[in-house]
Amino acid sequence: MLCPVAAPAQGETRTPSTQAAPAQAPLTDPTLEQLLAQALERRPELRQAEAQARAARERVPQAGALPDPVLQFGIQNDGFDGLMIGKMEGSYVSIMASQALPFPGKRALRTEIAQLGATAVSTQVVRTRLSIEAEVRRGYLDLLLVREQLVLLDRLQALWKQSADMARIRYETGEGAQSDLLRAQLELNRLRQRQLALRAEERTRVQRLNRLSGRPLEAPLPTTMRVRDMGVPELGDAESAVKDALARSPELAERHALVAQAGQRMALARRERLPDFTVSAGVMPRGGDFPPMWQANVGFNLPVFSGRKQNRVMAESLAQTETSTHATESLEQDLRLRVQERLIALAALRDTAAIYRDGILMQSAATAESTLTQYRVGRASFASVLEANTGIIRDEEDYLRTLVDAQRIAIAQAEVSLEPVASMGGGGQGAGGMPGAGSTPSAPARGAAPAGSAPGAAPSTSSSMSGM
Question: What is the pTM of this model?
Answer without folding.
Answer: 0.77
